[in-house]
Amino acid sequence: MSLDVSPELLAAAEAGEVDDAAFLACVRDSLPYAWRTVSAVADRVGADGFADDATPPPSETERGQLLRALASTPIRGALERHFGVVLAFQNCHRVAAFTPATVDGERYRAFISARGQLLNQSPELRNC
Hints:
single chain; mainly alpha; 3-stranded antiparallel beta sheet; 7 helices; globular
């Protein structure tokens, strides 16, 4: 299960749309490692519109949190809206944040390309 959803939040979702603040609180509380990682990367975005973190998570629990957060379209979208960035992801742990204005730029295109993925491989990450 990706998120620990309270009965109140589930009831709200069953009744209709849930606002981003309530959803983000659930994400933050359910996936604290992923939240901290994305928050730290977003906070480091510099004048060039880019920051990344390639630190492998300390355990499979944290790796799973990061994978769930970035593989889920609604979670990833909420994180992007909240932090005002566009997220990119490689190798089950390398998270990058780009300002929306840089998404059409060369650095973003290089990061999300097949070449970028291949160049970011290593034998240590084979089974991550």
